[in-house]
Amino acid sequence: MFKTRLLSGIVLVILIIGILYVGGYVTAGAMLLLSLGGVFELLRIYKLHNTPVGIAAYIATIAYYALLVFDKQQYIMPLIIAFVLITLGIYVTTYPRFTDKDVMAAVLSFMYVTVMLSYMYLIRDMDNGGALVVMVFVCSWVNDTCAYCVGVTLGKHKMTPKLSPKKSVEGLVGGITGSAVVGALYGMFYNNQVATLEHAPIIFAIIGAVGALVAVIGDLAASAIKRNNEIKDYGKLIPGHGGIMDRFDSIIFTAPIIYYGFLYMI
Q1: 184: CB partners within 8 A, 6+ apart
Q2: Distance between CA atoms of 22 and 105, rounded to whole angstroms?
Q3: 96: preceding bond cis by omega (within 30 degrees)
Q4: Contacts of 115 (CB under 8 A, 6+ apart)
Q5: How far is it, in rounded angstroms, from Cα 77 to Cα 67?
Q6: Averaged pLDDT for residues 126-138
Q7: 47: exposed, middle or buried (C-beta count within 10 Å: 0-12, 13-18, 19+)?
Q8: Cβ–Cβ under 8 Å, residues 97 and 90
Q9: Cβ neighbours of residue 218 under 8 Å, at least 6 residues apart?
């Protein structure tokens, strides 16, 4: 199991690096596929993945990315409003096939997965986005590694004993600190190798710390949904890791924070 998880993790990292390196339509297309997969996994929990409200969520996801790629962001809010109206229209015209909770699950799947994950593409599309997008992984994967190491060696106080018994307060602090330190080091590299940026180490450290905190919330939120619905994994797409939502749960939360952090601080 460990070997499978390790090998699939290495392949996944290589694919992500390649996709983000190319940028443009390739990155957008990859994020679209990941979003559709994540929406499908989330809707499947509520048995909505092959229903009209689920199909509406898939169509909205495709339309959303089309607007991003063709630089028509001014139509994103009308799209969201139209999606909500269409979903509610399906709800009332087919009543009582769907419940109000089904409608909310469909809307949440679009906002939670599609909109938030799309910020990976938006970061890559920024000036020097190929370098900036690295911070998403610093805040998610570096944070996770540091939190695990500190938690195993020093963890004594449970952070969320009912939701995730293995996570500790010490691990949380270690993950945030680790992300801030690696972020500061990467800020130095960015300043020297990519573009001159005043106070780069401080900016990257702050974004690293805040992003790491949000990454923990994303991880716990995905775990809470699984526990509420009594499932182990969202899917089996990634051997040893589970589904898209299992592997990208923290990235989904971190990407918007990284985007707006750089947008407002640079």
Answers
A1: 201, 202, 204, 205, 208
A2: 34
A3: yes
A4: 64
A5: 11
A6: 92
A7: exposed
A8: no
A9: 249, 250, 251, 252, 253, 254
Q: Which residues contact residue 258 at a Cβ distance below 8 angstroms, ignoring those fewer than 6 apart?
A: 119, 123, 132, 133, 135, 136, 139, 207, 211
Q: And the tokens for 145? A: 């590694």
Predicted local distance difference test score (pLDDT) of residue 51: 97
Length of the chain: 266
Q: Tell me, what amino acid is at 189?
A: F
Q: What is the pLDDT of residue 128?
A: 94
Mean pLDDT score, 173-188: 95
Evaluated on CA atoms 221, 225, 230, 236, the torsion sign reads negative
C-alpha span between 34 and 11 (Å, rounded): 16
List, in sequence order, the alpha helices (H) in 142-199.
143-154, 169-193
The answer, yes or no, to whether residue 207 has pLDDT greater than 60, is: yes
**Owner of token pair 């775990």:** 223
Distance CA 251, CA 233 (A): 17
* Residue 3 pLDDT exceeds 90: no
> Measuring CA to CA, which residue among 18, 45, 74, 15 is closest to residue 235?
45
pLDDT tens digits for range 88-99: 999 999 999 999
What are the pLDDT digits (tens) for 17-58? Answer: 788 888 899 999 999 999 999 999 999 999 999 999 999 999
Close Cβ partners of 96 (under 8 Å, ≥ 6 residues apart): none
Q: Which residue has the tokens 């801030």?
A: 180
